[in-house]
Amino acid sequence: MIIKCPHCQKLNRLPLDRVHENPICGACKLSLLLGPIEADQVSLKEILNQNKLPVIIDFWAPWCGPCKMFAPTFQVSAIKNGEKILHVKVDTEANPSIGHQYMIRSIPTLAIFKNGSELERISGALSSTQLAQFVSRFK
Question: Is 67 a catalytic residue?
Fold first, then answer.
C-alpha cells in the first residue's frame, strides 16, 4: 500500500504485513504511523484486512464544520497512539461508496475495527479526553 508520510508528505510503499514493525519514511526517517493515514476504497480494504493492529477510522467531509474542528484532536491521538492503533481518515465526500458501504449517516463518525470487523462506532466530534478514553479501550 502507498501512504503519505505525515511529516514530510512523501509517498512511501508500506507492505501491510510490516505495519506492526514501526515503519519509517524513506525520505525523512520518521515514523509513518505517527499521523493519520488518508484512505480511499482500495487502501481502506487493505488496511482493514491487516490483522496486526486495531484501526480507528474518522469518516469526515471537507464541508463539515465539526469534522474540521475535530481533525486536530484526531491528529494528536494519531501522534500519541499511532503505533498501537492505526488512525485512518476517510473523506466520505470523495469516497461516497465507502460511506454507503459502512452506513455512515452522520459525520464525523469514528469506527474501531479489528481483523476486518467493526467493533464499535461513535458519532460526533469528541473532546481530546473522550477520544483518549475511546482509543484506550482498543489499543
Answer: yes
